[in-house]
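pasting for ref
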Amino acid sequence: MTVSLRSALEGATNHLSIEIDRTTAVVTAMLGLDAVWWLLLYGGSVPMPGMRWLMAAEIPMAAPGAMERAVFHVGTLEAIAGYTVMWGVMMWAMMQPAMTRFTREYTAAYRGSAVGAARALAAFLGGYCVVWAASACVPLLYNAVLPGGIYGLTREYTPFVIGGVLVLTGIYQVSRFKRSRLRTCCASVGSHSDDAVDAVRAGAHHGVQCILTCFGVFFLAMIFFGEMNLVWMVALTAVVTVERLPTWGEELAVGTGVLSLVAGLLVLLLRPDLPLAFAL
């Protein structure tokens, strides 16, 4: 009986054994780090300049342009820096699932030790994350140049703005430029032995390519739908993740582009009531 039990336990152990190789470790770390970003973001552990003013003004945090409006109300360099950190954490949370496959291939293609691969990957992600944090200048620029800012313009002319943004997003999604960036951004990684400086440079370059690839989704649709809206954050994270599938990601990009274009035209023509967060 004891022998049978021991044999059964040994058999179960063999079936459940997991080999943690280099690429498995990277995938596990990326998933864990992504969970950290989401927890920081929705646990209130990132700076949110002007939040008390937003609450006093009864402006929902998830409303289009709410966070930018709050930053401009505070009007200090500290507020801009805090917004940049908040934006960076948000974009890292949304982009990390899409980056998991690429970082796995980046690590697998590294010529050298596991320690060297970890160092190169950390430097690569550092450069990548800095570029995405710096992209906070885009919504801030929108807010500076648009009459009434993102919040004021979208609230005043809701169907026109939302419909127009959907049309522009659709055009961008189906454009040859977008599809070319998608293929380039998600290409396989060649054999390399990057040192820290080269890895930072490669990460920054890849970050720029990712921004160009995702520009319609994140810097048009998301900003004017409300970047702190959890529903849109999850939905758009799924879109940019599946877009990077090597077999049919490009088809999904075109498909979402066509749907966005049609939806935008319908909004412009029919002008329906839109259940956006600022409709108090």
